[in-house]
Amino acid sequence: MKALQHLKTINHHKWLVCQGCFKVGLYKQGLLHDLSKYSPTEFLVGCKFYQGTRSPNNAEREVKGYSAAWLHHKGRNRHHYEYWLDYSTDPNEGIIGMKMPVRYVVEMFIDRVAASKNYMKEKYTDQAPLEYYEKGAARLGKMIHPETAELLHQLLKMLAEEGEEKTCSYIRKYVLKNKK
Description:
The protein is mostly helical.
């Protein structure tokens, strides 16, 4: 097991998210972000499947056909759109994504930026989180609420076109104003 490397990776990710959350005024969310990663259910899987270039949950999924760590994680962390899946009030729709509170959409944005920085290291660019999102966005369908998807995509595009400082300033001044 690669416990020390995995611990360094999650600590670095948490530090990056904390910095991003502090920039936009989400202090409590920055401090509490991803604490479940330190639980045995998630941490031990991370150690066993650690690779350093991608989430160990993907490797667990490839081996077992599912990721117990991911199922645990997404059910405890509101910044993942998967946390917000529920049955529609329309019985013909089945399970759909509920609209996420804005502060969690912002944390999701920051989480995606931090994950890209963490895994890509010196290859990171401000376009990387948008490119990664757009590769998978077509598959989301009704799993993410349209307004949630629109805000996330808007922020990722702004990051790619105008940079992190301007995007964080915009989030703090306009997106989160009176919505925390």
